[in-house]
Amino acid sequence: MQAGSNTDNITLRIAEIMIDELKLEDVTPETFDPDMDLVDEVGIDSMDLATVALVLRDEYAVRIDEDDYPKLTTIRLIATYIQDKLDSAAA
């Protein structure tokens, strides 16, 4: 994945956070497939997502509502969600 747009940068940062916070092995932010299903393919649960959501809240000042967790099944979806919130806040 190449960093380009802001959403791409957010996607890469989320991968870094997931790898660090969840102690994922054998994957780098650059090789983490942003479309991989986080529950079925990575094995994270709602507590893991809550941990990542807290880090993202601190980093981007964006709150991820718990009700939205079931919709955020990939890193790309989380990045788009954050970008949408940032765009809304800037408007």
Provide an overview of this structure.
- The chain has 91 residues and is mainly α.
- It is built from four helices and no strands.
- Helix 1 (6-21) packs across helix 3 and helix 1 packs across helix 4.
- The mean pLDDT is 90.
Blueprint of the fold:
Elements: H1 6-21, H2 38-42, H3 46-60, H4 75-90
Protein name: Carrier domain-containing protein
InterPro entries: ACP-like_sf (IPR036736), PP-bd_ACP (IPR009081)
Pfam families: PP-binding
Could you list some keywords that capture this structure?
single chain, 91 residues, mainly alpha, Non-ribosomal Peptide Synthetase Peptidyl Carrier Protein, Chain A, 4 helices, 57% helix, globular
Please summarize what this structure is.
The chain is mainly α. It is built from four helices and no strands. Helix 1 crosses helix 3 and helix 1 crosses helix 4.
What is the helix content?
55-70%
Task: Provide the CATH topology.
Answer: Non-ribosomal Peptide Synthetase Peptidyl Carrier Protein, Chain A
The oligomeric state is single chain
- The span between the termini is 28 Å
| Proportion of strand residues | under 5%
Q: What is the CATH superfamily label?
A: ACP-like
Number of domains: 1
Largest sheet: none
Give Rg in angstroms: 12 Å
Shape: globular
Number of helical segments? 4
Query: What's the pLDDT, averaged over the residues?
Result: 90
Protein name: Carrier domain-containing protein
InterPro entries: ACP-like_sf, PP-bd_ACP
